[in-house]
Structures are given as C-alpha cells and as structure tokens.
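Onboarding guide, step 5: your first structure request.
Type a short instruction followed by the sequence, for example:

Predict the 3D structure of this protein.
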Amino acid sequence: MSAEALREEIRKSSQDRAREVLTEAKKKADGIVNEAESEANNVLEKRLREAKAQLEQTEKFERAKVKIECTKNLLRLQSSYFEQAFHEAELSANKLSIEDPDLYEKVLSNFIVEAVERIGDTDLEVVARDSDKLIVQRILDDLRSKSKNSVKCSISQSESLQSSGGVIVHSPNMRTYYINTFESRFAKVREDFRADVVEVLEKKE
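The system replies with structure tokens like these:
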C-alpha cells in the first residue's frame, strides 16, 4: 500500500472514529438532558403538591379563624341581649313582692318546698326577710296541714335575710343548708349561660 493510500485510510478511520465518539457523546448528552428534565419535573410536581397542600391548610385555617370569630361575635351579641333581659328580670323580681303579692307567695312556697326536699330533713329552720316572715309562717302552716309526714320547719327569729326575695333553709346546727333566693337563682342562670358559651367555643376551636 502506498503512503498516500495509507494516509487516506488513517484519515478515513479517524473520521469514522470521530463520528462514533460524537454519536456516543450525543446519546449520553441526550440521556443526561432527559434525566435532568425528568428530575426537574419530579421536583416541580413535588413542589406543586407541597404548595397545594400548604394552600389548602392555610385556607382551612383561615376559614376556621373566621368561623370562630363569627361565633364569638354572635355569642357576644347573645350575651348582650342576655344581660339586658337578665337585668330586667332582676328588676321585676325586686318588685314582685309589692306588685304581685299572690305570685310572690307562691314563689316562696315553691322555694321552701324545694329546699326541704333537697335537704331531706323535716327539722329545719327558715331564714326569711323580716317583711316576709308572716307570709312564710302562713306557708309553713299550710304545709304542715297538707303533709302526711311531720314537717317541723320553723322561722328563724334570730336571723333576717338580706335579699330581694326568697329563703335560706338550714338545719339547727347549720351543717346542712339550702340557699333559695332570687340572687342565688340568678347566679345559677348566669353560670349556666357562661358554661354554654365556653362549650360552644371549645367545639369551634
């Protein structure tokens, strides 16, 4: 083989090899690019999922905050109306013994009967306002006449109730007692209302 033919063969072989190297390099480059694109897509999808989950959580939290705030505003409004109604009820109770004596006597009778039943004893003393002692005595006389058991309730002469109405019933030794005044009744209603408000708020949080 002549020198010229040998050079041509070497040149052709070098070009073929160069083409093979370029082809392989292109394949590898394409593989790297595809792998990088796939990884980028995976990362993008993951970030999108995380962002969506975060957005949903934020929206849920904001909705909960708005719901709680609306509930609190509603309860504040209800509380305002309750206090107004409560105040009017207290004023009416304070005037009851004067404006409607018959109804007041029925209320006192119910209060005394309830207290006696709650304490579960018949030897009791009733503390009343000085202005109510005649009414209470009449109620006790009526209870004794109607009761099958011996009801030994008497008015406490040494004590006077400072209240807008009602009674306190206790045993002679003061170990057991039952407060049944307008003030105690109103306090119980207030406490029940506050408990209802707390329960509603706890359920909303």
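Each response can be followed by summary notes, for example: The radius of gyration is 45 Å.
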